[in-house]
Amino acid sequence: MSQFSSAFTAASSVSLPPPSFYVSVSKRSFIYCCSSSQSRTTVVNGKFDGKIVDRDEIRFGLPSKGRMAGDTLDLLKDCQLSVKQVNPRQYVAQIPQLSNVEVWFQRPKDIVRKLLSGDLDLGIVGLDTVSEYGRGDEDLIIVHDALKYGDCRLSLAMRLPDILAIDDLHIFVQIPKYGIFENINSLKELAQMSRWTIDRPLRVATGFTYLGPKFMQENGLKHVIFSTAEGALEAAPAMGIADAILDLVSSGTTLRENNLKEIEGGVVLESQAVLVASRKALIQRKGALDTTHEILERFEAHLRAADQFMVTANMRGSSAEEVAERVLSQPSLSGLQGPTVSPVLCKRDGKVAADYYAIVICVPKKALYKSVQQLRAIGGSGVLISPLTYIFDEETPRWRELLSNLGL
Ligand SMILES: Nc1ncnc2c1ncn2[C@@H]1O[C@H](COP(=O)(O)OP(=O)(O)OP(=O)(O)O)[C@@H](O)[C@H]1O
Ligand SMILES: O=P(O)(O)OC[C@H]1O[C@H](OP(=O)(O)OP(=O)(O)O)[C@H](O)[C@@H]1O
Ligand SMILES: [Mg+2]
């Protein structure tokens, strides 16, 4: 084995949580005890066995700090589910609108762990965290997979050739220095490099010690070892500690500033904030499913509305159907289910008649200007645009999916 073997874990080995968690460890299983407020639960392989702990409240885990914390509270507030926290160092809080819910602020990874151990019932974290710490456990159910913040991707990155500055006749020229990844632009090309052997494997630095080895195995990269660090992973290749890193990327600035490039096929997953629940809690805990339904409906209604504007306009026409024909002839004006067309009634020669019709449609924010142009083209005037707060539709597909996932 290479000189790095002590610091690295081979891709094929089973990766386990930090040793401080273990009571007894074998290669394939670990057992530890965790205490919950009401009883002690035996946890086997990271999840509790048997029935859920008896308690009246539904426990909802929210990120206590970091990137996800503020946006999560904002989302809940936008859904009229403001969290009342007496002071920021207090880890328990309430959502007055949901009287049976107790909020617990936790680190994202601990939210996933506590869902598995039965100490939380619901949580909001990034999909990356659910995937890494949930390890495909069937007890975790993604209730809403796109809360539209915390966007990032877990991606493999490697070093670009260094740029060597040479003072040549007082003119600085930049010459790319030889780099082993110079011509490697895809995962396939990386896997085909003959230089990775048992004695000199590809060294990857990552905090994702479950997803990293899994991804490499699934993609046929045989000779890979992993090292783990808590942060600033981007420094590892330049320090000569690793050949590549597997880390979260959002704007790409950190990679760029550290002379690292992503490669085709190197994205392990696309992540954003998700609402996740414990299957056992949804099935067994009184009120958990109803509360989840309410939270899901509020999230869906808000997120749907956030993408749309409500547009009203007046249009001259001979009948509501004739006006609707014209509106529906335009691709951006079909609305959610079609336009609402109402007569604008006025009195002429002593008779009430409709020369104008008011139309109301929802249009995607992105298509706003195109919609206004199309409305004008078919005779629309007095176009008013208003923000939408919620769109409560019929039962959402996500709720139906959840019920079928639970076998209900
Ligand atoms: N550029 C980014 N880098 C890291 N995480 C991001 C980024 N953009 C979005 N995220 C999301 O934010 C989460 C990280 O949040 P945060 O940094 O607060 O947690 P953490 O580093 O896992 O927490 P801790 O360091 O306390 O264990 C990620 O799991 C991911 O879902
Ligand atoms: O693509 P970008 O927008 O540049 O974001 C990516 C960086 O952000 C995260 O680091 P973080 O800021 O959490 O610091 P850390 O790595 O020290 O935890 C992540 O680990 C990357 O380093
Ligand atoms: Mg961080």
Describe the overall structure.
The chain folds into 3 domains: 36-148 and 272-304, D-Maltodextrin-Binding Protein, domain 2 (3-Layer(aba) Sandwich), CATH 3.40.190; 154-270, Periplasmic binding protein-like II (D-Maltodextrin-Binding Protein, domain 2, 3-Layer(aba) Sandwich); 308-387, Alpha-Beta Plaits, CATH 3.30.70. Helices cover 26% and strands 33% of the residues. It has helices at residues 67-78, 108-117, 127-134, 187-192, 211-218, 235-239, 253-257, 279-284, 288-306, 320-328, 368-377, 397-405, and strands at residues 9-10, 24-25, 30-35, 40-44, 47-48, 58-63, 92-94, 101-106, 122-126, 140-144, 152-159, 163-168, 171-176, 202-206, 224-227, 244-249, 260-271, 273-278, 308-316, 340-348, 351-364, 380-387. Strand 14 (202-206), helix 5 and strand 15 form a beta-alpha-beta unit. The longest helix is centred in the last third of the chain and has 19 residues, at 288-306. The radius of gyration is 28 Å and the shape is globular. It starts with 8 loop residues before the first strand and ends with a helix. The protein binds adenosine-5'-triphosphate, 1-O-pyrophosphono-5-O-phosphono-alpha-D-ribofuranose (PRP) and magnesium ion. Adenosine-5'-triphosphate is lined by residues 65-68, 107-109, 126, 128-129, 150, 152, 248, 250, 271.
